[in-house]
């Protein structure tokens, strides 16, 4: 309709003499109307599929003093032309503007195929409505990089690993935002090759920023990453807000949504995540490499999310957590149609700690296992780990946990070597699908329940009333009734 009005006005202004009679005017109006409809239809039929693609009238905000358009650097959004050079040229120009407040690169509507490229400091990447950055699928274009020092290993294969599609190291002040434009990893070929064991190196994430600070990601969509989607590594001050992350729920291995890894001061909020592995997985390095690197993930706030994960969990901590994880708050999160809700996973050999973690106002809707702590996640980089390096887990609170359609609401699997200490449950009511069985499972757990909760807690926990007075002390903290058959 926008085109119709614009075109109509144009004709009306340019050729007023033609519109001499009422009848000619109506005829022209009719022709113009029909022509615009035709143009509009043609523009919206792509490869025989009907695409509803209303003309965008959104004005792109100016977020830096100097603004560029990818087409200024020879970019072509036809889905076939490789735009790596255009991105690299743009980044090189913006890199020179750091004393002038940096630069903004607008990616217009279109399909912008590219090989991996690096960002620079003081840069804003703006993805317009209808802009899609498409990752080239041929792995020969993907840069190989040294293993992450805290993993000592490519994660899936020894030796180097593929870098990320969009990458950055030692940067400051990075913004990736837009009018819901998309970064599309086209991961399908990677997932198949991974399954068929045709890859020699660990797959690359969509977006990986390392050793950087002041990173803001908002108002965009990421989809079909070859591997993890967003991977901030040893970064500080990161905000991820109002981002959609999508991958198939099955057959898209390791497509975690967001993996904060040895990161400090991070907020993740208002996001929708539906992926083939963990929605979020907070990490801090792997076994002896992570212990040596010793960089924890701390001060992380996760709120207002809707998450779906059929393979793993909505929000995870671990299993790589050897640098430690502390001060995490997860609130106002809905996990639906998923295998697990909130999951903490670790193993002997990890070392490190997971402490001061609060889950508040979490809802499960049709989830197999609601809350799970697993201390025997025995996956190691190599034989060099210390089996006596036991992680320390404690000070973990669950407040306001609700939901329905959950098979096992709580499974707290501590062990003699990795006991779970000072856990707290308060205000919990989870509708279950197995009413008669033991569905609040515990082993080596010490902690307390405040007030009445549903389902009834395991015997391992002390019971307090709402006023905080002890009602019944546990006599069997170390008793185990974990039942994986449920
Ligand atoms: C970028 O340039 C192209 C081609 O000149 C133009 O069509 C488009 O509107 C511009 N987009 C932005 C976001 O500046
Ligand atoms: C990106 O930066 C990294 C680290 O500085 C470097 O190893 C890599 O070669 C760069 N990649 C490209 C495509 O320039
Ligand atoms: C989220 O981003 C979309 C565009 O991706 C925008 O239309 C919407 O207003 C944003 N919402 C908030 C709360 O920022
Ligand atoms: C952004 O795009 C994604 C994918 O098309 C869509 O699921 C989501 O609803 C959109 N977000 C907004 C705020 O329009
Ligand atoms: C993996 O290595 C084998 C043997 O060196 C080689 O034939 C194959 O092309 C490599 N595949 C990839 C995807 O690099
Ligand atoms: C994201 O979208 C919201 C709503 O349109 C807007 O208020 C906010 O400024 C946007 N974020 C950025 C970084 O542009
Ligand atoms: C992170 O943000 C805090 C608070 O705004 C600020 O004091 C600190 O300097 C920032 N750190 C870095 C490395 O940017
Ligand atoms: C709890 O979280 C849900 C989203 O899952 C939200 O709609 C609701 O407002 C939250 N309640 C409070 C009290 O914050
Ligand atoms: C729990 O917190 C208390 C008080 O801050 C502290 O003494 C204790 O060591 C913590 N335990 C764990 C396992 O973090
Ligand atoms: C339970 O096991 C832990 C760790 O082995 C031990 O420290 C604690 O004393 C045991 N508690 C009881 C009540 O036996």
Automatic annotation (TrEMBL):
<dbReference type="InterPro" id="IPR011050">
    <property type="entry name" value="Pectin_lyase_fold/virulence"/>
</dbReference>
<dbReference type="InterPro" id="IPR012334">
    <property type="entry name" value="Pectin_lyas_fold"/>
</dbReference>
<keyword id="KW-0378">Hydrolase</keyword>
<dbReference type="InterPro" id="IPR051801">
    <property type="entry name" value="GH28_Enzymes"/>
</dbReference>
<keyword id="KW-1133">Transmembrane helix</keyword>
<feature type="transmembrane region" description="Helical">
    <location>
        <begin position="21"/>
        <end position="40"/>
    </location>
</feature>
<comment type="similarity">
    <text>Belongs to the glycosyl hydrolase 28 family.</text>
</comment>
<dbReference type="InterPro" id="IPR006626">
    <property type="entry name" value="PbH1"/>
</dbReference>
<dbReference type="Pfam" id="PF00295">
    <property type="entry name" value="Glyco_hydro_28"/>
</dbReference>
<keyword id="KW-0472">Membrane</keyword>
<keyword id="KW-0326">Glycosidase</keyword>
<protein>
    <recommendedName>
        <fullName>Pectate lyase superfamily protein domain-containing protein</fullName>
    </recommendedName>
</protein>
<dbReference type="GO" id="GO:0004650">
    <property type="term" value="F:polygalacturonase activity"/>
</dbReference>
<dbReference type="GO" id="GO:0005975">
    <property type="term" value="P:carbohydrate metabolic process"/>
</dbReference>
<keyword id="KW-0812">Transmembrane</keyword>
<dbReference type="InterPro" id="IPR000743">
    <property type="entry name" value="Glyco_hydro_28"/>
</dbReference>
